């Protein structure tokens, strides 16, 4: 199963954290939401690395979920409750971060005046876009007009979030947002690995040709397999890291090694010394980053083990 880079970032990467607040457009808010389902219980993976005076929990997140998925297991609850500090990829929920992100969009998310996105898209991609418009309950002309001023990365992000919301997924039910709210209520300290500007840049900095190709892959896959998200979330919910790695990273490693290096590998390498610094300190910390960064030989867990740390799955 193929997932475009945009879908990966929306579900488990990092850019969605910086861009989700920017992806809410009335153009894409016309579909009726899916009905609420019976509560489902998940058991996602949790790891711990420690030394004599510190304990660091590592937890992979999903940025957008159905409200009925209960992922806060007693084990995760206890680990989170014991932590003094919550470390996340970036500050994207504070008022300051929201203001910064909103100001960036005209600079990095819009095409130059006079250009239109749909004029750059293939006939096949436009046909796929029209199918998606129908699923969202919006006229094709409205959807086309809505994405026309946007660069492909932002258009793909908005369309992905809109389709997920129509399927019953809610950014407000994402793991990151829930943990941030709980940490604020409990008076925990916050730490961040990246800035919001950096996170937006992971997608906006891609070459235009890459952005456009990824948008068209995402549209094609959304039409061919509208239920593609459920298998990925199921792998995360079951704590199946091998399956999660296969679904998310295997194809990108093979077909777009430069993209994989930019979005996954380099960021994981950047985070290793940051986690090591936390371990070298004192107390208990809870690190929550996109779950796509955890599995595989270039995943955060493997890189920490390669660096000599005893990372144990709980």
From TrEMBL:
UniProt-listed InterPro entries: TraB/PrgY/GumN_fam, YbaP-like
Pfam families in the record: TraB_PrgY_gumN
Cleavable signal peptide: 1-29
UniProt entry tagged with the keyword Signal: yes
UniProt keyword annotations, A-Z: Signal
PANTHER family cross-referenced by the UniProt entry: CYTOPLASMIC PROTEIN (PTHR40590:SF1), CYTOPLASMIC PROTEIN-RELATED (PTHR40590)
Name this polypeptide is given: TraB/GumN family protein
Annotated organism of origin: Marinicauda pacifica
